[in-house]
Specification:
The chain is of the alpha+beta class. The chain has 2 domains: 6-96, 2-Layer Sandwich (Alpha-Beta Plaits); 102-175. Helices cover 53% and strands 25% of the residues. The chain contains 4 helices and 6 strands. It has helices spanning 5-43, 72-87, 102-122, 125-142, and strands spanning 48-56, 59-66, 92-96, 148-154, 158-165, 168-175. The strands form 2 sheets. Strands 1-2-3 form a 3-stranded mixed β-sheet, covered by helices on one side. It has a 3-stranded antiparallel β-sheet with strand order 4-5-6. The chain is elongated and about 95 Å long. The chain starts with a helix and ends with a strand.
């Protein structure tokens, strides 16, 4: 049996090119098509204003900007469960991008976060609510921006915070494990 080296070389070259094309196509589908489908599903949600998805070290990072929300905890849980189902066990992280103004961020970083973390540490959530109500009243009386409204939602794992100063919201989710 005669083996023609040029025929074998051509077959190997064609096989290598075909394999590279298949791997490139699989990479493209995994990287772009899955991400675009996930983005389109999330942006269709009525409370989601903007979505950005990135992949870092086998982990999908999803950045969400919310519109006005009545029950932040329920919307967050619905979106989180939907993402878990769509990503089928793939590791992901959901991050919230806030459109808050500097006054609202200042209230959170210099007042509210201390009240919340103290309550998470001590477990005295009724005191936290009373202090937040007092803060709402004080800020509303002294602010030129308008009415401050602080909503806190709790479940067994997380604390969900929605602060609103006029039409501007600040959302955050804090793990209760400290």
């Amino acid at each position: 049996m005669n083996l023609d080296k040029s025929k074998i070389l051509r077959i190997l070259t064609i096989s290598a090119i075909f394999l590279i094309l298949m791997l490139a196509f699989q990479w493209y589908l995994g990287k772009n098509v899955k991400v675009k489908a996930l983005e389109s599903v999330l942006i269709e949600h009525k409370n989601v204003e903007n979505v950005k998805i990135t992949e870092e070290r086998q982990k999908v990072i999803i950045y969400l900007t919310f519109d006005n929300i009545d029950n932040f905890m329920q919307i967050y849980k619905d979106l989180y469960d939907s993402l878990e189902q769509r990503l089928k066990g793939q590791s992901f992280e959901l991050k919230i991008v806030n459109k808050a103004n500097s006054e609202l961020e200042d209230i959170y970083y210099n007042k509210v976060q201390y009240i919340i973390y103290e309550a998470l540490k001590t477990g005295e959530f009724t005191k936290m609510r009373a202090r937040l109500d007092e803060l709402e009243k004080t800020v509303t009386e002294n602010s030129t921006s308008g009415l401050l409204k602080i909503q806190v939602f709790l479940d067994s794992e997380k604390l969900y915070l929605d602060m609103q100063l006029d039409d501007v919201h600040y959302f955050t989710v804090i793990d209760q494990e400290m």
